């Protein structure tokens, strides 16, 4: 398709290891025909012109009078001014520069210039959205949006509102470093403080990992005394031993559903029987080196306590921003946009799930890209 | 000429529109054998070493004892220290690093090293200047400077000093976005406040556009009630209808002469018969994405009022910095250095003049560049 | 070896000189199989995890319990987190992210994951160090470190501690601009203040320059009245004429030993007979456009005066930071990474030594690089 492809990947000899390794500086490609979170539902308000870059593209998000969220390319097709600088007229947006008006499908509905005819090309791209689980999900690809590709995270919807929380963090790192961090839970004893420690029980475990065409699942089970401190007080015997599990499932492009719980009787070790929580971590690339990181959590204990709910979100921010965050940021600064595998990472038992995700995601992106190249000819 | 030319233009598939569009990231080339404004005359003072980047080149501007302005490449040919760090000795400049001394033609006049012989290569490039209309104009090209290529803006010189004002603004945008803004006056009702509003009369008009080998002219005529507020109070019947005109002429590389006026009798609609003003907008590229924007204006009413004169310039700054400026800056941020036409802009009646300028300027640059490549072989 | 090499050097036609000159934008290569200063000895403390980029590589420096300094690549081979974020355990370092532990040879000594086996690839590159003359010297190349390649600067070690001082400055310039500055001492009368002035005697002199396979030496001798002010008060007749010398020797990659002294009798003009000082200037590239600049000095007068010692270092900082520094920084900004010789510098008698250093260093780098390319195949 494009001759410039020969430039997409350049090689350099990195001399900073004992052997000459071939580091690949890559042009980062994203999976496109899939659902990313564009925003927390609560962040796109009634009359706002919310805007954000997603996959290196400027996106305008707003709500129609009936509350439905819409997304347009945040770029007027006339002179390329961002539409968010303009104003709302009902469900339409009017460009700040020359007052072209577009409806929420991106069609031009008013041209104040000349004879007022609307040029055929005066069309803004609109992006399909789904609003579910407290998030606005966006489809950035060219293929028809497929709602069935959004996994079922319905557990988030089910229960007391004070047991559910959502949050957002911006990070200047590649989104795969955030996926790595969650897929490899062995880091928690090393990076995090006492509150979510497994007291060294997790690292020696090799998780059971299962993979299918569109998911990678990992599961750890262990016992510890006392239970993880976030759960101990809600168990029958806070100071006693408890069985625990982590169960995490990555689905493309960048969502990880994580369940964790503790139990002190002989029932099956699943969230229904445990004191535990159901989390969703999902990462949306802003660019190759910056990410919108979204998080939701529902717990099954102390469900009516709004203050506890707020404390839980503050603790999640503190853990990520003070503990994981600096390490991940420093790793990004060290790696730049060099391809992960070209750096010959040492792979260990704790990497099995994370590496399967990287490989499956890479395969899905290459497959999508090959399809595009065939389509363009 | 140079093998690297194959890298000048790369293509990428931009997926941010419904169809796959071919956006061209371009290496920005400038027209060089022509006159750009280097500085306001008043900004280059008696003993100053004024320096500024113009077309990506460091330029030193200063005045000789007799007041004549001179321009040198702001780079010592010895070790490449900027000459503006040095000091003046009469009409010469002495480099701060090793004290080589150059006269205002760029010839080395003193070498304190070794036997003191002046190396043949010890020469600084000097740039031809013309000082006219309150500006210092510079010729950055390799061909002989041709004073006849500077258009006649003599109206600026003719009249009371308190009816004439000059100003300068720096913008981090490509200079063609500033030209676009002035060439397409339909934006004024949408971007600007009441004071220069045409009350919606301008957008529906299709300007008369004329083009020759070295100029693009556009003219609008309309009536409105009351007249534009900047003129109404100086007309016989401030609240009544008035006929108006805009007449703008772009000349290469980046000067736009704009006349505007209002009239309430049956005479011919030209500046001589109107209450109006004669403006010059002229843009000098600092780099591909930053611009020195110069402006001069002469009005034919309230000509002795110095305070009014100052208010006019403040209003021009406020309009540009608060109204056009943010839109143009956001457009730059959205476009980067992507070629305008490769983005498939929707073209409308209000774009006729601006697009003709872009196309003529592009043709002139390509023609100059082809000549250079032939010359280099 | 690598196809991408064709991109290493691109050419552009620079139109900012009277003739079309071919400026080469170069990929900066460094000499690697040699000794650079990594740090002042005093800057790497007992329990510190000192880190710094050297030749575009992240380096961790620390001291073992026995005081020996060690250097590791500051990048865990597992997930590429910088090791300096971790913690010390005895002479080992533990990665902050997943707690892999490495000894000071870079060997992994503990893996808390899975079965605890240590992957064969879990190895951090270590860099040979030499600690001499108050500096920690590092060998960044792939060949075996050769201590005999570190020149003898033993004069620094010999004498009263209050006559010896070391310092460090960071500069956002290419390291060769710093070498140029020291190799061409003719600048001192033009850039610096009275205190080290030769009163114009130096510039007219053509130094005697000698070059061998691994060194460039330059020597100036002159008389002035009074002596350089830094020495005059320590001479028998402070106001009288004195003979002076500068003797400087560059050795690869970037060390310049400078001796300077003044004498008022008929003995041989060398440091042993003079009031003078023995300096070492040495520059370590952080990147192509930033440099760690280290300096040491030993004087042979007022040797017990600690306050004078401190004043001398403050004066060195003031001279460099206020006088040379701004000129060198501005020169860097003007040159970018354009190759020095491609800019056709005017070469004068004062450039002889500096230009020989540039040419010899270039030859050594090209030779080393050619060897590497042959080795890689």
Name the helicity range of chain A: 10-25%
Rounded to an integer in angstroms, the radius of gyration calculated over CA atoms of chain A is: 23 Å
DSSP helical segment count of chain A: 5
The structural class of chain A is alpha+beta
Work out the oligomeric state of the chains in this entry.
Answer: homotrimer
Major sheet: arrangement of strands of chain A: 14-20-19-18-17-16-15
Describe it.
Three copies of one chain form a homotrimer. The longest helix of chain A is centred in the last third of the chain and has 30 residues, at 306-335. The first copy, chain A, is globular and about 80 Å long. Chain A contains five helices and 20 strands. Chain A has a seven-stranded antiparallel sheet. Chain A has a four-stranded antiparallel sheet with strand order 4-5-6-11, with no helix packed on it. A four-stranded antiparallel sheet of chain A has the order 7-8-9-10, with no helix packed on it. With 377 residues, chain A is an alpha+beta fold. The A-B interface holds A 1-4, 7, 32, 56-58, 73-75, 77-82, 85, 95-100, 111-116, 119, 121-123, 125, 140-142, 372, 376 and B 10-13, 15-18, 20, 22, 180, 184, 186-187, 189-191, 200, 203-206, 326-327, 330-331, 333-335, 343-351.
